[in-house]
TrEMBL record:
Main location: membrane
Protein name: CidA/LrgA family protein
Membrane-crossing residue ranges in chain numbering: 30-45, 66-87, 107-126
Subcellular location: Cell membrane
Source species: Acetobacter fallax
A Pfam family it matches: LrgA
Membrane topology classification: Multi-pass membrane protein
Alphabetical UniProt keywords: Cell membrane, Membrane, Transmembrane, Transmembrane helix
InterPro entries linked: LrgA/CidA
Amino acid sequence: MPEAFFTLLVFQLIGTAAQAALNLPVPGPVIGMFLLAALLIWRKSRASRREAHSPLSPDSEPGTSAASPALAALSRTLIACLGLLFVPAGVGIITELPVLSANALPIAVALFGSTILGLMVTALVMHRATTGGAAPEKLPDTGGQVL
């Protein structure tokens, strides 16, 4: 498991270095997480292509993960402890309670206003996307065939 933790730290370091070098507005650990996910997806697709070319290969099992067993176990352990990571955020909210209570009305207006605005934009986009075509009852029945 130490090598899996080292892998996570290396990708966090790579992400932080990329964020600092490119002056990106995204946190470095998030960039590292996306890079690790991209690497795992690439490894899984490469393994599935190799499996398709030689299905009787003894070293590959169908449906195996691209991540090492240690990385998978560490990931499950960290996800199990994920709730603890919200404690500092909760403490931060409590310590900033005077500031939040002083600005409660603007915060509430911003939350509810952005929610209503998001719903209205979504409804407008859906309305525009669905009008102008044939009515659903007038579409030809293709017997469930898409193409």
